[in-house]
């Protein structure tokens, strides 16, 4: 029996279509016709010997075989890109790159980014700062950081790219969930002001006519998670980096969405920083897709 060799170009179209939720949008991103992308998907399904997607309303969803193919496609593409970057990067001069990231992604996303970048570009020194939003944006403005992944706080910055729009959520303890008693103030666990999530939580409660009190204040996200897990109160974040001890809560006032942005210190960055930017985008898209499937 002859071995089947999967086409990486076809796999890249497949992954892009799934992550964007539309193969037509993937075709636009890749500067190809929709029919060309459809032909690639058909070829991949023929190689797999079974359908990889099925219709669901007006869109497409993955079949069980499609889920398996997606996982392997991501791994194959990541390894391919890492190999190319390692070879092309072998001629790059040594450099120093300063990268800042929101605490929400420190444990869930940062290890993959550091591992891939350090393997592909061992000649670069990478300095990472995991901190709160305002600290990161201040560092960018002061020239202390080259690349920052942070929430959009409404501050104008000329060199930025929106990565995702995520819903804010009420978060509660799994083992000691808050028992809401009519007339009682909602105990709120939050960062010290100023904080985007704190402001959103207070505004939502006040607009709903609900009283609230500060039950716990912390300067670190780990402190927030610990206080909520202990049952001291509820907090507001996205689902990114949510510990297993916590759960989303649906019976409190509606919350807005928040933008996740990749900020650059300048329009044209050094080669190493550009490579890191590509790795961050790729890792983030894969992580957020997995988050949406949970």
From TrEMBL:
SUPFAM superfamilies: Periplasmic binding protein-like II, Winged helix' DNA-binding domain. The keyword Cell inner membrane does not apply. Pfam families: HTH_1, LysR_substrate. Keywords: DNA-binding, Transcription, Transcription regulation. It comes from the Bacteria. One of its GO terms (molecular function) is DNA-binding transcription factor activity. Residues 6-63 form the HTH lysR-type domain. Belongs to the LysR transcriptional regulatory family. PANTHER family: HTH-TYPE TRANSCRIPTIONAL REGULATOR LRHA-RELATED, TRANSCRIPTIONAL REGULATOR. This is Transcriptional regulator. It comes from Aquitalea magnusonii.
């Amino acid at each position: 029996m002859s071995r089947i060799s999967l086409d990486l170009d076809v796999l890249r179209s497949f992954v892009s279509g799934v992550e964007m939720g539309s193969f037509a949008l993937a075709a636009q991103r890749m500067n190809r016709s929709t029919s060309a992308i459809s032909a690639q998907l058909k070829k991949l399904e023929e190689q797999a010997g079974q359908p990889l997607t099925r219709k669901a309303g007006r869109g497409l969803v993955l079949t069980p075989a499609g889920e398996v193919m997606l996982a392997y496609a991501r791994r194959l593409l990541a390894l391919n890109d890492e190999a190319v970057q390692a070879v092309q990067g072998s001629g790059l001069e040594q450099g120093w790159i300063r990268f800042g990231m929101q605490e929400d992604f420190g444990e869930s996303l940062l290890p993959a980014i550091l591992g891939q970048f350090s393997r592909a570009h061992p000649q670069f020194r990478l300095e990472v700062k995991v901190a709160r939003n305002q600290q990161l944006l201040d560092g960018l403005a002061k020239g202390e950081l080259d690349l920052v992944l942070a929430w959009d706080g409404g501050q104008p910055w000329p060199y930025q790219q929106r990565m995702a729009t995520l819903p804010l959520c009420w978060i509660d303890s799994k083992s000691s969930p808050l028992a809401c008693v009519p007339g009682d103030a909602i105990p709120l666990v939050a960062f010290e002001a100023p904080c985007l999530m704190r402001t959103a939580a207070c505004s939502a409660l006040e607009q709903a006519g609900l009283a609230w009190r500060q039950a716990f204040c912390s300067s670190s996200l780990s402190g927030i998670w610990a206080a909520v897990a202990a049952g001291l109160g509820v907090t507001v974040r996205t689902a990114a980096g949510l510990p297993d001890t916590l759960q989303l809560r649906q019976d409190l006032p509606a919350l807005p969405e928040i933008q996740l942005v990749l900020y650059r210190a300048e329009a044209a960055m050094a080669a190493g920083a550009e490579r890191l930017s590509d790795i961050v985008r790729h890792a983030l898209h894969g992580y957020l897709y997995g988050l949406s499937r949970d």
